[in-house]
Amino acid sequence: MSVSLLLADVVLAFMWATTQSFRMGPVHRREHPEKLEKVTKRSEFPCLDVFICTADPYKEPPIGVVNSALSVMAYDYPTEKVSVYVSDDGGSALTLFALMEAAKFASHWLPFCRKNDVMERNPHAYFASNHSRSSETQNIKMMYESMKFRIEHVVEKGEVSDEYITSDQEREAFDKWKNGFTRQNHPTIIQVLLESSKDKDITGNYLPNLIYVTREKSKTSHHYFKAGALNVLLRVSATMSNAPMVLTLDCDMYSNDPQTPLRVLCYVFDPKIRSKLAFVQFPQRFRGLNKNDIYASEFKRLFEINPLGLDGLRGPNYVGTGAFFCRRSLFGDPSTFVSPEIPELSPNHAVKEPINSLSILPLAHHVAACNYENQTNWGSKMGFRYGSLVEDYYTGYRLHCEGWRSVFCHPKRPAFYGDAPTNLLDMLNQNKRWAIGLLEVAFSKYSPVTFGIRSMGLMGLGYAHLAFWASYPIPITVYGFLPQLALLNGISIFPKISEPWFFLYSFLFVGAYVQDFLDFVLEGGTFGKWWNDQRIWNIKGLSSYLFGVTEYLLKSLGISAAGFNVTSKVVDDELSKRYDQEIFELFAGWRHAGAIFADVLVSWRWCWIVELCNGDNAASTEWTGPV
């Protein structure tokens, strides 16, 4: 019993100590994009490449991908300088069809947004809000609803029928999905849907580039999940536009502020940090959460509280979406440039040909091949890093170790909104995948405890705290069971009220909760959300994290291989209704073990209170409460 309690206390002490790195120097920043044109002309703004990743049209509905793409295409930014690349790792003709429809709708939507100074440039979000009821707005809404119907009808049928193919060019594109084409085995397909040098909207202004990409897949090649898809986009975009700024975006995240790129330029043009600036990270924010966020899907600490603290060191960690990268940072450290295999992939290469030209497209297909990265530095010294299921955490960590820094931009108006899991199963599966990926980094040669602290000092502690999230099952299990067993056997393991140590225990117990509550509420949380966050933490500790540790051990022993399960973004009407009513789903047929263990942990707290109240007679107490 003593050894178990010691081990639990060591884990808690380690996690507490590493948490202090988030508290040493929190930074709150403010930008003034309205003053930007005093520094540089709008025509001199750097080009911007946007990477949007999707992998399954049935888990990530194509209409959501369309809304995300349209929201960034409509940025308050020179349209001829914006290129949007959509990576379809599912290799689905349904996604291509949806983006073809988006390209047509963009010629009406972008000028409408500019004319009416629309802030919510995601069409779905705009029409769901208190928008204008003018005839122009109603016409645009009808066009959007018509597009949405066609996309959803095609997805429901599972194929793009002839009635929706309107040109020989479209037919030629869909003919690439021939017999034998599967999501695990297919050639590269790159389709230029809009070209800024020739395609114009209804008002005569040029439209941004829009490019569909599905990389070559082969059952004999490792594809490295999302990190591999991002590196393919990095190379394909280098051959076609090679913008110095790159925005990575999940397909369920959309722009909520058209001035977001201008906020980024405030840091890119700052002479004090620009030479070592790797990326500007925005917090993940979610719409559709119920009042008290019963599944703690907001992740307020991970996406808002902790990054403020890390910004006082070398900057926030990369969270996989809502980050604007300086392309140069993905090619070696600030003082040492790692050259790619061909000069066309260098961040300094100037693209002089149109993206649809015969000299560009063959090269783009070549660098998207499944065996292109063999015997190269991609994934190790260049691009997004391989070696973990949490490629975002690992990439940001390696960049910080190399000497780069990042900036946390947290404007009053959220820059991006996305979808959060609205059922317990999806949330726990997502956290299990994170736990496996973090352990892969924690026990690698680049472990934050050794390599990270040597490279970054205090910053390394912050990464170590995240890397060892999955160690929480140890103290939760120990303190969830041993106090009850000790009480039943007449053993006192906590100080009695009459002993001086009681005041220290009480101070630590109350102080920890008060501090955690204040951190949560001061960043816009509520008591209800904080309470559910505590509950879900207990459940995750003995489900997601415990199963994650088990799967990591099996993978390390070569018994099984960890997979990348895409979190479903499909909204079930009945499930959504229960979620809005704050009905806690414990899986339609069975009660999750984590919920039971959470109840056990609560009973431990009652055990301690009973011991304290009974004082010296605690050893003879017969416990009749919940066990």
From TrEMBL:
UniProt protein name: Cellulose synthase-like protein G3
Parts of the chain that traverse the membrane: 460-482, 502-522
Membrane topology, record value: Multi-pass membrane protein
Keywords: Cell wall biogenesis/degradation, Glycosyltransferase, Membrane, Signal, Transferase, Transmembrane, Transmembrane helix
InterPro entries: Cellulose_synth, Nucleotide-diphossugar_trans
First and last residue of the signal peptide: 1-21
Places the protein is found: Endomembrane system
Pfam families for this protein: Cellulose_synt (PF03552)
Superkingdom assignment: Eukaryota
Transmembrane is among the record's keywords: yes
